[in-house]
Amino acid sequence: MPTLDLFNQAKEKVGTVSLRDDVFGVKVNFPLVHQVLNAQRANQRQGTAKTKRKAEVRGGGRKPFRQKGTGNARQGSTRSPLQPGGGQTFGPIPRSYRQKTPKLMIRGALRSVLSDRVFSQRLLVIDEFKLESAKTKSFYELFKNKFQLDKALIIDEENKNLALASRNIPRVKFLRTENLNVYDLVKYPWLLLTKQAVSTIENRLSQKEALQKEELKE
User: Fold this and answer.
1) 123 and 15: one domain?
2) How many helices (H) and strands (E) does the chain have?
3) Based on the domain organization, do 82 and 109 belong to the same domain?
4) Are 159 and 84 in contact (CB under 8 A)?
5) Which residues are CB-neighbours of 159 under 8 A, at least 6 positions away?
């Protein structure tokens, strides 16, 4: 069972916290993380790229010049892709890039990334973030001077002041626990979790509790 130091928001050690093995101590499955990450990025694509084909461009069907005697290759239509202003050959058309990923795979990938952050010692557990105001300047000074981090992901329960104070810092992102995802976990090298967020994530991703829920459904 991984045991990490527990800090306050001034990065002063106030105790220790034990993490569950089945969430923060599993073997990292890199192929699974890669598959779920690719699916998540594919689902963000709009798929609205469009070019006009031969039947959609403006113009008639007349021959641009006579068949013989010009020295040019024969052409049958001004809408041909070989003519200026003609249609596009094999151009993109609107499509969906969505990939369906089973929930068990997503949970497994989340456990792998969280465990990797523990193994690489890039996970900090904070007692709580309690900001008096939502000013970006005060939070930025606290973040740079106390934690001395350049790029980090902060996860907590609903915390309005923290969300407002951190949203204008380019290399810092705040997420609520229900929005936890593989892409952001991989993108940001440092992960900051509050004690309450750790408890919520463990309840959500614990393999034992997931099995108990499935048994109750049956």
Assistant:
1) yes
2) 8, 6
3) no
4) no
5) 129, 131, 174
Three-state DSSP class for residue 133: coil
Q: Which amino acid is at 1?
A: M
Tokens at residue 153, please?
Answer: 């992901």
In the numeric block, which tokens belong to residue 110? 């989340």
The model scores a pTM over 0.85: no
Alpha helix ranges (H) inside the chain: 21-24, 30-43, 103-119, 136-142, 160-166, 182-187, 195-205, 207-217
Same domain, 134 and 26: yes
The boundaries of the domain holding residue 19 are: 3-45+99-217
Amino acid at 133: S
H-assigned helices in 1-29: 21-24
Q: Are residues 127 and 50 in the same domain?
A: no
In this prediction, the residues of the chain whose per-residue pLDDT falls under 70 are 208-218
